[in-house]
Task: inverse folding
């Protein structure tokens, strides 16, 4: 993994509310993530993890509150936006793996997008299938191309929503190694996870959400283990 | 500059995916052809009646076919949530609209040009001498339909009753385009053809106003 495009960046949530009609998906969420930290978001289904990640990715605008990026003059440049991996692949089924990476690389002004796409296809183990349409891929292969898309512009913040979904054990090991590398390079990693795994072992902090609010925030090993395994600190 | 380069990249993607699947082109071309064939049985070709009603039929067929095209315009971005990845990648969200409306205009124009020979044959209306002006009318009319349709498609894709909502919002908004395009085309296809520049000017102004509105407010249409 090569150097980041912009300096390491953190995330600051200040009194974030997100409401859909009368339903609060997030309620007064406030915490800060330092540049280069690796944080796990934990919580039951519907606790607000995905909404928080989408707010952090700037795909969803909060109803109230403020999101800022300490370390990057508070506002991220257009080509330095977070890399985001969601439940869906966020790539085009009707384009090949390489065409998808080239599309997003060019849109984000990546220097030499063809070389970067090839480098990533090699890293995610899809170089042999570079000319295959994504719709012919298995679930695990789709997840790999989704991760490659998120990494294409060497983001300084990575947001992963249950990144291990669909990956086989070697895939999970590969993802854990990739995340370790990008984190070492200074990239801030925030991911939502269920249970402990090779990937959760990278986390140095866990934030637990319940009904849209932060109910626990710990850096201690025992509490972190307890949040990931049992859902409470 | 980044708006134009992003638009060019996205337009390339729109054209590539469409020419790979040929979904929109086939649907619109078949729809227009069916309407032209069916009404050619009801109207006697070559008569004054044909000259009077055929332009209206042509534009109605274009309008309904385009509404089929717009249904999937933003809907196909929802399958894998690619709209979110585009919003994360582009520096100006207007590029997403601009690429889609240019692609829609091109698809619509291409379909219309493919259908013109059938129109001329079924209704026995000679078009050759009026072709340059007719193409201009088709262009400004189709551009208006595409600008409005692309915007409405972005709204309706997020709604629950999207199949119903799109035509309900689109058709009333496009009434001025339909009326003026029909009038201009009818005078052009008359036995003594007249080019109604005022009508063409009206269509161009309509396009400009709706394009400006889309540029100003388009970002809000993409919000969740």
Result:
């Amino acid at each position: 993994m090569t150097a980041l495009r912009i300096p390491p960046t953190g995330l600051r949530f200040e009194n974030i509310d997100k409401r859909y009609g009368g339903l609060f998906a997030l309620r007064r969420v406030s915490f800060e993530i330092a540049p280069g930290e690796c944080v796990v978001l934990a919580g039951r289904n519907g606790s607000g993890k995905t909404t928080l990640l989408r707010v952090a990715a700037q795909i969803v605008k909060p109803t109230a509150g403020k999101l800022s990026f300490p370390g990057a003059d508070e506002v991220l440049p257009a080509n330095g936006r977070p890399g985001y991996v969601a439940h869906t692949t966020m790539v085009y089924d009707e384009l090949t793996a390489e065409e998808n990476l080239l599309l997003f690389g060019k849109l984000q002004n990546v220097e030499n997008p063809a070389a970067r796409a090839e480098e990533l296809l090699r890293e995610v183990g899809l170089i042999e299938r570079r000319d295959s349409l994504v719709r012919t891929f298995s679930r695990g292969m789709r997840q790999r191309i989704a991760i490659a898309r998120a990494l294409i512009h060497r983001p300084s913040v990575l947001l992963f929503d249950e990144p291990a979904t669909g990956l086989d054990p070697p895939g999970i090991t590969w993802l854990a190694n990739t995340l370790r590398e990008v984190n070492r390079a200074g990239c801030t990693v925030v991911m939502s996870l269920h249970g402990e795994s090779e990937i959760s072992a990278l986390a140095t902090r866990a934030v637990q959400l319940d009904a849209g609010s932060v109910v626990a925030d710990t850096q201690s090993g025992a509490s972190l283990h307890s949040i990931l395994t049992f859902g409470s600190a | 500059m980044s708006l134009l380069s992003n638009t060019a990249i996205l337009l390339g993607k729109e054209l590539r995916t469409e020419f790979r699947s040929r979904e929109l082109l086939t649907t619109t071309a078949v729809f227009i052809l069916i309407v032209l064939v069916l009404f050619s049985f009801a109207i006697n070709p070559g008569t004054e009646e044909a000259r009077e009603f055929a332009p209206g039929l042509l534009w109605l067929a274009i309008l309904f076919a385009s509404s089929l095209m717009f249904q999937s315009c933003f809907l196909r971005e929802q399958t894998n949530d690619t709209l979110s990845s585009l919003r994360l990648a582009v520096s100006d969200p207007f590029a997403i609209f601009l690429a889609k409306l240019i692609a829609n205009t091109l698809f619509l124009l291409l379909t219309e040009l493919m259908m013109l020979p059938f129109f001329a044959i079924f209704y026995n209306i000679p078009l050759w001498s009026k072709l340059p002006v007719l193409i201009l009318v088709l262009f400004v009319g189709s551009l208006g339909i595409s600008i409005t349709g692309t915007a409405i498609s972005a709204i309706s894709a997020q709604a629950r009753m999207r199949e119903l909502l799109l035509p309900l919002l689109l058709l009333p908004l496009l009434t001025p385009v339909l009326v003026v395009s029909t009038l201009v085309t009818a005078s052009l296809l008359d036995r003594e053809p007249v080019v109604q520049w005022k009508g063409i000017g009206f269509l161009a102004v309509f396009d400009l106003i709706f394009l400006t509105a889309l540029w100003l407010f388009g970002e809000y249409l993409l919000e969740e």
The first helix of chain A runs from residue 49 to 56. Chain A has six helices and nine strands. The two ends of chain A are 34 Å apart (CA to CA).
